[in-house]
Amino acid sequence: MHFAHLRLCRHSVLSSLFQALAGLCVTVAATSHASEGWGTGAASRPTQFPGGAIVFPSVRISNPDIEAGNDAFGQSVALDLDTMLVGVPRDDTLWGNSAGSARIYVRREGEWVFEAQLLPDDGGANDYFGASVAVSGDTAVVGAPYWEVPGATPMQINSGAVYVFTRSQGVWQQQAKLAWPNGALGYSNYMGGAVAVAGDFLLAGAAGAAQNQGAVFTYERIGTSWVAEGGMERPTNFNGAALGSAVAMQDQTAVVTSIYRLGSTDYGRAYLYTRDADGWAFRYYFYPVNGTAEDGFGKSVAISNHTILVGAYPAESSGLPGAGSVYSYWSHGGAWQQRARFTATDATAQDRFGASVAIVGDNALIGAPGADGISIDQGAAYVFSRSNGAWQEEFKIIDSADSDGDLLGAAVSMSGAHSVIGIPGDDVSEGGIDAGSVIVHVGFPAIFSDELEDRL
């Protein structure tokens, strides 16, 4: 076991605890290891050392196969309370090269420990099982957007599939596989490129469906069976592309994006749906006020209560192409409006800020996997907090043990006061180039609290 470090650069003051440290960088010690089961200990508050340094509870979990290069462990992540799901889409398994896998970790007595490896019952080489993941309670969902039936015809390649696993007494089993029957009419659907689950409802994005118009398939679990509901109808006069590029769901409210829109303004849109007795109904659409052509709006999406975040890149941010930005939308009395657009205070070209987004209450975690530091594309993640409707940057998280192409922030997820950041390009050993890892934080004091109220 050895220790790596993350640096958190503070850009504003949240409490008297930090007022004396304003403008300083705070070092986070994260345990980096190949074996699984090491944890942060029971402490969930920072330890303050002489000289003002503060160490936050955090842990690095690396790809357990430290010599497995190009696995991309951490390309996708999902967190729900004390259960974490990590996608490993380029893992070589018994199904073939880059068939993919996913790994479940649980937090017990303050420690994150490995619980299960998830594998499909009918995988194949280059399926990229684990390209997307979602978790809700004892249900885990894993997308395999390049799955196709054996001996696929030209009209069946890359149709994609989604697999559902459930946990009972600590044991995970595959409950369902969701796909077009026999891959029919599935030419490059890429179903499962994005997934979301909340209780007994599931969304599967298929951005390549209908000649790249895209689609979102919806399912409801009845007993132990997942029943197809026919999908979300595209809004009237829809003229976008790649619908289902990103999906998010909270309870029975869902947001899905299309990343391109035909016409003079080539930015994407996000669409809000709610579920009633008749299924999922379109309610509202979002677009970037003052958006620019080819903005990349809709690359990521997250929802928490009355707030929706949408990531956009490549985007012009302070004249920097590809720097990226995030748009915030807020609902009051049923009416939605764009409340803010924000980016990193140290934005540079091609950072891809907004490639991943997560939100809990008034706290947001934003990934910028293209950010450069000591190394090219080492990546970064940013913590923002909201007060009086304005989002302010609190910390920038980077890995001081970085290398070129680590892509920290390619995926992020939050649940309560906990968060996880994917680093799919992390070199965990001399032979494990791009094997990947994740960093898990057990709360940021003075930012996260148990009272997740919108201070608008």
Would you mind describing this structure in some detail?
There is one protein chain. This protein has 456 residues and is mostly beta strands. It contains two helices and 36 strands. The protein has a six-stranded antiparallel β-sheet with strand order 2-1-33-32-31-30, with no helix packed on it. A four-stranded antiparallel β-sheet has the order 5-36-35-34, with no helix packed on it. Strands 6-7-8-9 form a four-stranded antiparallel β-sheet, with no helix packed on it. Strand 6 (76-80) and strand 7 form a beta hairpin.
Short note summarizing the structure:
The chain is mostly beta strands and 456 residues long.
Low-confidence stretches: 1-7, 10-55, 445-456
Report the portion of residues in β strands.
over 45%
What does the main sheet amount to? 6 strands, antiparallel
Distance between the termini: 45 Å
Helix content: under 10%
